[in-house]
Design brief:
- There is one protein chain.
- The protein is an alpha/beta fold and 456 residues long.
- The protein has two domains: 3-230 and 433-455, Aldehyde Dehydrogenase, Chain A, domain 1, CATH 3.40.605; 234-422, Aldehyde Dehydrogenase, Chain A, domain 2.
- It has 14 helices and 20 strands.
- It has helices at 22-39, 45-61, 63-74, 78-102, 136-147, 161-173, 188-196, 209-221, 244-256, 273-288, 308-323, 375-383, 398-407, 440-443, and strands spanning 3-6, 13-17, 106-107, 114-121, 124-128, 151-155, 181-183, 200-206, 225-229, 234-238, 266-272, 327-330, 346-349, 366-372, 387-388, 391-394, 414-415, 430-431, 434-435, 448-455.
- Helix 2 packs antiparallel against helix 4, helix 4 (78-102) runs parallel beside helix 5 (136-147) and helix 9 packs across helix 10.
- The longest helix is centred in the first third of the chain and has 25 residues, at 78-102.
- The N and C termini lie far apart (56 Å).
- The structure holds NADP nicotinamide-adenine-dinucleotide phosphate (NAP).
- NADP nicotinamide-adenine-dinucleotide phosphate binds at residues 1, 128-132, 155-159, 188, 191, 206-208, 211, 214-215, 229-232, 263, 361, 363, 389, 434.
Length: 456
Amino acid sequence: MAYQSTNPYTGKVLQTFEQITDAQLEDHLKQASNCFENIWCHTSFSERAAVLRRAATILRERPQEFAKLITLEMGKLLPQSLGEVALSAAILDYYAEHAERFLAPEKIATPRGEAMVESSPIGVLFGVEPWNYPYYQVARFAAPNLMAGNVVMVKHASSVPQCALAFERLMVEAGAPAGAYTNLFVSKEQVTQVIDDARIRAVALTGSEAAGAVVAARAGQNLKKTTMELGGSDAFIVLEDADLDKAVKHAVSGRMGNSGQACTASKRFIVVDSLADRFLERFQAALENFKPGDPMDKQTTLAPLSSLEALKNLLAQVDGAVAGGARLLLGGARIAGLDGAFMQPTILTNIDKANPAYLQEFFGPVALFFRVPDEDSAVALANDSPFGLGGSVFTQDVERGKRVARRIDTGMVFINSDLTSSPELPFGGVKNSGYGRELSGAGIQEFVNKKLIRVS
Ligand code: NAP
């Protein structure tokens, strides 16, 4: 597994990085463990917060430097990369501000004596992270856990090594001691070694179901706690009383943001009959308007996918859907005349239950469209999925929206919006979308020891 930066807009290999040796891995593990035992777990909340706040300030002072690396390595439109840098800074600041309150000791009412629960750090954590939001994903894992007093080691996706190194440098520049945050260019075999190592106390993975199953199984053999943030195929339900303008606007941003490569992207558009034709017409017109080009150029609205491999896989999925009886309403092919990994915005309709697409996640600008008679059928279809990450409901009756939201079997439901992420909102799913939560007060509770102290 080579760690290699390839610009998905030009196809040019930018830089290749050596994997570390087993001896180097051992040095890193030793350093992280020493840092935890001798330095980091003895620091106060305010000392840790100073490091995270400084990191946030650096991101805000030099956003272009960080954002351009994202765009170079995985092709995101530069304004969206700048947005990701700002969100990552907000996450660092959020935990710097609130961690002490989230982890404050809790007194427990007990008939005799005194009882309290204290949250203490558990040690060295291992995170396996994906390329689609190269800083945000890492900030979600590192910020709460560093504030809790743990130290972190990160295996980033092999396609974004420059971003991986940039985040490690950021933490060092912000004043984190050596070993508090460690980037690891490790092979998959070494991932197993890291999970098995007694100094690693828990593992977090964000990525596909396949990777999650492998990593969670290994951690399970070692009786180590994990959190899994996996794939999704979020339903976007439009009820008959929805504001159509709003629904179409959010359908476009929900499907096309990050070129469709988001776990919480809107992927299955489920529209009640009475609005279906008008919705589809306007949605299609909006998708036809996207302009592919250089993601560094502000005029570009459609970025390439992260790699030619990702494009090949997505095209094969679309072909499979069509072979299975789906109708291609829009797109369906690679954009001609450009070297980059560009996929046409695509809409598939007439997808029945036997179609392989019915249960799949489409990680790119491909919308699956379903027409349903009513609210009950919309909810049933939304829940007929192996995934349970997020979902959206559009209705002008907010109370009705809440009732529908409660019936959707996912970790997150947004009413009258596509999904967005914010430091204070818990993030995570159910079913094959994984377990555990990141962000918010919940995200800092995953890897702490809730220790009972009882005075008789
Ligand atoms: P991926 O292939 O699973 O990769 C994610 C990370 O896991 C990478 O660091 C990858 O390393 C590593 N990995 C893959 N297979 C592994 C194995 N057998 N053992 C150890 N590590 C392994 O996922 P992706 O294609 O990059 O990302 C897309 C998927 O992630 C989608 O399903 C998406 O929905 C999901 N996702 C979920 C969330 C969420 O919060 N729920 C957020 C973003 C993405 P290499 O790069 O070296 O292969």
